[in-house]
Amino acid sequence: MGSYFRRQLADYVEYHRDPWNCAMHVFGIAFLFLAAVLPLSLWSVTVFGFQTSAATIAVVPVLIYWFLLDFALGAAILGAAIVLLSVAAVIVSHATTAGMWSLTAILIVVGVASQIVGHRVFERQQPALVDNPTHLLLGPMFVMAKLFIALGFRRDLAIIIQQHPQGAAS
Hints:
The chain is mostly helical. It contains eight helices and two strands; from the N terminus they run ααββαααααα. Residues about 165-170 have low confidence and may be disordered. Keywords: Membrane, Transmembrane, Transmembrane helix. This is DUF962 domain-containing protein.
């Protein structure tokens, strides 16, 4: 884990102290990821002789970024991304185009609403992304770090995440 990631994670944690906000982020991030890849799953592309979707191609750069920040967390997020990309492929193969776009809109509304509620109601502060747009890409890393810590892994991350006093709502 590089010093850049440690600094970014420590900054991100300051906006995510309340456990309810963190729970809202788990759902919000998953819904927003699915909403982002769902329409792109409609487009089939061939890359190096392999058939895939535009969604898969679009996810590769951010997966590389996550791997560079922290290999273990990046690998876990890759697993989650594979599941969500598979869910998107199943939805696209069974839904009408109008149904897919309706679901995408619902996922965006619910995903964004969960982020707003988490920050406004539970944290009582603005989202980290407002002050630092790169935090948009740290959300999945933070959620995965919290999961690793809960499972008893990654004490190095627990030290960063828990080094500051918890908020009053914790």
